[in-house]
Structures are given as structure tokens and as C-alpha cells.
Amino acid sequence: MSVSYDFSGKVALVTGANTRVAVSTAILFAKSGASVVVSGQYADNRLTTVANECRSTGAQVLEMAADPTREADLQKLVDKTMTTFGRIDILVNCPVSHENASITEPSFMAKYRETMHTNLEAMLFMTSICVEHLEKTRGTIINMSSIRGAHASPKESAYCMAKSAIDMFTKCMATELGPKGIRVNNVMLGNTGVKIEKGVIVDIPIYAIHHDPDHFPDPFTFSPDRFMPDNRDHIQPYTYLPFGSGPRNCIAMRFALLEAKLVLAEISQKFRFFRVTDTDVPIVFTKEFSRCQAKRLVVGIHKR
Ligand code: HEM
Fold first, then answer.
1. Which UniProt keywords are present, listed alphabetically (predicted)?
2. Is residue 265 part of a domain?
């Protein structure tokens, strides 16, 4: 399946662009119409090769080395991005240093510090200096994590700890920056051990997600105000999925929403609805496998 995205007019800043995953990410953003900033630790051939590949798609590209262990370099990277493109829509935090060491090796502490610095602290600093720009574009942050954040491995404790911290950092930032309109997600790379065979149907329990009080307080109360502009930025990504999400979401989402609004506007202009003795308060829902609908809906109707 090939999926195409349109990122025309957007600016994607990709760090760690000497690593394979960041390289593919940068090229895909370029192919999808975004202007791309590719940054790696060193100004070497690999960085230029990635930048040229992005340029070959017709994208505007800024190529800049920035050492993730030096905050001054990272600040220059963000400043240069702003003077060149004037905005940042997507920040891909992908600094990677992977140094294995057993806890008893004399070099352990040095390798631990290096790993934390390049993998974790650079990400924290980049996030902190990009928030003001991402807030203006209601942008998004993607943090590269790894299956190592959840699965332990001998001699990889520093890397595992860094990735585990990235996962929690991402969750904290999603709650902290969500109200500013900035979405924060991580990508957990590596073998999850979960294999979905071709043809297997995966069911997402939307009813349960939509009625989870952690996400929607007092979930059974009819409260359309939850979705008003003041409140909707507080909704966590992927907790409200009436039309699904991702490349196979409902193709008619906007049409269906518009249609529903028109129907409501049309009928409420002509009729007035009111509660009668048989009206169920609250409404009783039948919980079926794939649908949730009112058991019965008895209301009085007056022609206006
Ligand atoms: C309020 C009305 C509607 C709701 C709540 C709704 C919801 C959904 C959901 C949940 C999915 C699955 C998304 C996923 O798997 O991630 C879907 C898919 C789809 N919907 Fe709707 N839908 C609505 C109206 C419509 C209408 C009016 C049409 C056509 C005119 C339509 C066409 C489709 C199609 C073609 C898909 C499959 C897309 C794909 O697999 O690539 N839907 N819809």
C-alpha cells in the first residue's frame, strides 16, 4: 500500500539525520512537500547525501550540523531554521548514541553520561526551545524511542534507561503541551514481538476509550461543551476516534460532520423537541459488539 501525505507549506526539523530512521523520515517529509531541515552531529558526507536526496524531490532544504551535546549548537540550529523558513511545524527528535557497556566496566559511567546526553538531554533541550515556535503553528513533536525503552537487555542499561525516560517525557509533554495545541508522540522502533498476520482483523475498543473517565470526566453525562474550542485542545491524541484515525480513517469525515450539522439545523428550525413521560432520562444505551445505540428514543415533537 502506498500512502501519500501533503505537507506543502510546512517545515520539518529533523535531528540525528545521520541515522537511518531520521534519514528516511527527512526524505519522506521532503517528498510530501515539506521544507526540511536536516541536522546531524557532524558536517560529513552522510549529512550532505541526505540533504541532496531531499533537494532532489524539489523541496527546500537547510543542511546544518549541530552537536547534540552542545546546547549552543542546538540553539543556533533552531535560530537558523527560523531565519531561513520563519516557522517550525514538525520537530523530529532523533539523536542517537548507542554505546554498550557492562555495569562493571570502568568506562560505564562515561558511556552512560554520553548516552543520556545525546539521547535524552538533547531532546529535552530541543523541545524546550521549539515550544514557542510550535505553539504558533499548532505543530507536532515526534520523539524517536525504541523497544529498548520497554525491554531490558544486558550491557544496554544506559540506552534502555534513556529510551524509557524518553517514553515518559513524551507522555508528560503530551499533557503539558496539548493545551498549547502541540501534539507530542513517540515512535517505538524495534521488534515489538507482536505480529499481525495479513488478513487479521484488529478491533479498537472505541466505546471503552470514549468512556474512559481518565480522558473524559463523567463520561456518561451529555456535555457537548467538551468539544467546544476552549476545551477540545485538552483532548489527548487518539482518545477520541469517532471517524477512526490514520491512513484508513473515514474518507467522508468532513462531509458527515457537515451533513449532521445541516440536518440538526434544518429540523430544529421546523420542529421543537421536548421531554414526555416516556422519555428515558438518562437515555438507555444498548452496548453491542460494534455499535452503541439508544434502546429507545421517545420525545415529543411540535411543529414550529
Ligand atoms: C457520522 C457518520 C460517519 C461515521 C461516524 C463514520 C465512521 C467511520 C469509521 C470509524 C471508519 C473506520 C476508520 C478506521 O478504520 O480507522 C470509517 C471508514 C469509512 N467511511 Fe465512514 N463514517 C461516517 C460516514 C460516512 C459516509 C457518509 C461515507 C461515504 C459517503 C463514509 C465512507 C467511509 C469509507 C469509504 C470508509 C473506509 C475508508 C478506508 O478504509 O480507507 N463514511 N467511517
1. Monooxygenase, Oxidoreductase
2. yes
Is residue 261 domain-shared with residue 167, that is, in the same domain?
no
Q: Domain with 58 in it: what CATH number?
A: 3.40.50.720
Pocket perturbation via mutation, ligand 1, pick of 250, 255, 263, 290 by most ligand atoms within 8 A of CB:
250
Is the pLDDT at 191 greater than 70, yes or no? no
DSSP per residue over 41-61, as a string? SS-SHHHHHHHHHHHTTT--E
Report in angstroms the alpha-carbon separations of 9 from 82, 137, 140: 14, 11, 15
Is 199 inside a domain boundary?
Answer: no
For ligand 1, say whether the CB of 245 is within 6 Å of any of its atoms: yes
Other residues' Cβ atoms within 10 Å of the Cβ of residue 179: 10
Asked if residue 291 has its Cβ within 6 Å of ligand 1, the reply is: no
Q: Is 250 in the pocket of ligand 1 (CB under 6 A)?
A: yes
The per-residue pLDDT for 1 is: 38
Residue at a domain's end among 164, 189, 214? 189
pLDDT digits (tens, 9 = 90+) for 125-180: 999 999 999 999 999 999 999 888 888 888 899 999 999 999 999 999 999 999 99
pTM tops 0.85, yes or no: no
The domain total for the chain is 2
